[in-house]
Amino acid sequence: MAYIDQFFEVLVQAGASDLHLGxxxxxxxxxxxxxxxxxxxxxxxxxxxxMMSEISGPERWKRFIESGDLDFAYEMNxxxxxxxxxxxxxNGLGCVFRLIPTKIMTLEQLGxxxxxxxxxxxxxxMVLVTGPxxxxxxxxxxxxxxxxxxxxxxxxxxxxxxxxFVHVNKKSIxxxxxxxxxxxxxxxxxxxxxxxxxxIVLVGEMRDLETIQLALTAAETGLLVFGTLHTNNARxxxxxxxxxxxxDQQSQVRTMxxxxxxxxxxxxxxxxxxxxxxxxxxxxxxxxxxxxxxxxEGATQKLQDVLVGGKGEGMQFMDDAIxxxxxxxKVSPVEAYMKAIDxxxxxxxxxxDANKVL
Length: 358
Fold this sequence. Notes:
It contains 15 helices and 13 strands. The protein is α/β, with parallel strands linked by helices. A hairpin with a 2-residue loop joins strand 5 and strand 6 (92-101).
């Protein structure tokens, strides 16, 4: 048993999501969004270095000491796996751990709209799952990959940093690769997947021009590419993908996107006011002929009309999804107002809480 496991056990028993350790501070856990210390005694340099080097191993520890950052996954036991981030900060050493559920939830259990399953049946193109950090993008993507794995015979390659959810082969073959353990970068992992008889590639993060360029090319040549971006809705997702490229290439990229983008699933987590915990809400863009021509023109402000008008195809505008859960009494008007795009639509419901947020 590693020294750090005592802290992980407190986190698991409390039902918390994250453990924060920093030199000169007490250890803290994040429970339903709130930070709580789990002991009074401050963490020393010696204690931090001992437990961090113990779970990372000598090679990773050396890499961290040289670079100041490190990402990897650690398994305490069969039920508890953690995404680990080591960092150097003003007081010395620090690390943050996110508990990764070992059981992959289904799309139904997560409350993800039924139409998302259709993306799993595509034979090519790009589908993006987007949202801010901690909005459950990885959980939703894992559920979608598990749906494909349970129902289809495909070869799925994932390129992640680090590997979060561990998939076992069901009907499909799943090859999981970690950056930088198994492949130096996302773009190199993606490039290699083109030679590995893959049907589907999941790219953990589309964070640079080369990765996005390769993903678009792979999607155009018949691979189904899933990726994540830190954007809040479909319009911002399209804009972000185009803006990464130099201005002289942007019209060509818009054409590539119009041809290969099949859908965007944007996700936000809202605090529930009925049962406690949090609830996922989604904006869903299914790229039809109208959406493709809007992307080609670069008139992304018109995507809202497609989203609102595309309910029959399973599309959903983010504010409509937020409105729906507020009307059902699952989230408070304040939470709905804070997360909405068009805040005016929700302002009238704030009542006495208006002073807190306006």
